[in-house]
Amino acid sequence: MAKGIGNGIPLAAVVTTPDIADKLTQRIHFNTFGGNPVSCAAGKAVMEVIENEKIQQNCLEMGSHIAEGLNRLKSKYEIIGDVRGRGLMIGVELVKNRRTKDPATDECLKIFEHAKDLGLLVGKGGFFGNVLRIKPPMCLTKADADFMIEVLDIGFGSI
C-alpha cells in the first residue's frame, strides 16, 4: 500500500502473511524509500492522527451515510444498477436496464461531467466505464457527504 499512508510523503508498506515475509528474508529485496527516517516519521504521524482523531470510525459512519443516500437514489433512478463498496470506497454501477445489466457508459460519462461542473470530483471505471468511483478523503464530513448525494441526485435527474 502507498500514497495515503505518508499523506503526501513518499512512503509505502507491504502487508503479507508470515510465510511470505519469511521468504523475503531469503532474497534481496529493494525499494526506493526503504528506511528513510523522514518518511517513516511522517508515516508514524499519519497513523497517530488516524488513531487519535478516530478517522477509521469516521470512514465507517460516513461510508454508511453515503451508501444509504445512494441506495435512496437507487430507488429513485432506474439507471443505478448497483451500489457497492466498503467504508469510503464506493462504486455506483450505471445500467440501461437492471434486468439485463446493459452498461450505461455514455450516461455515466454525462453524470461524471455534470458532477464535476457542480464541484464534485468522482472517478469513473469498471470494465465498460459505467461505474462511478467514489473515494473521498477520510476526513469527510456529513455536510460533504450530503453535498455529494445532492450533486449526484441532480446528475441522475438530468439523464
Topology of this protein?
Elements: H1 18-24, H2 37-52, H3 55-76, E1 80-86, E2 89-97, E3 102-103, H4 105-117, E4 123-125, E5 131-134, H5 142-157
Antiparallel strand pairs: 1-2, 2-3, 2-5, 4-5
Helix pairs in contact: 3-5, 4-5
What does this structure look like?
By secondary structure, the protein is an alpha+beta fold. It has two domains: 3-52, no CATH class; 55-157, Alpha-Beta Complex (Aspartate Aminotransferase, domain 1), CATH 3.90.1150.10. Helix content is 47%, strand content 16%. The protein contains five helices and five strands; from the N terminus they run H-H-H-E-E-E-H-E-E-H. Strands 1, 2, 3, 4 and 5 form a five-stranded antiparallel β-sheet that branches. Strand 2 and strand 3 (102-103) form a beta hairpin. Helix 3 runs parallel beside helix 5 (142-157) and helix 4 crosses helix 5. The radius of gyration is 19 Å and the shape is elongated. The mean pLDDT is 92.
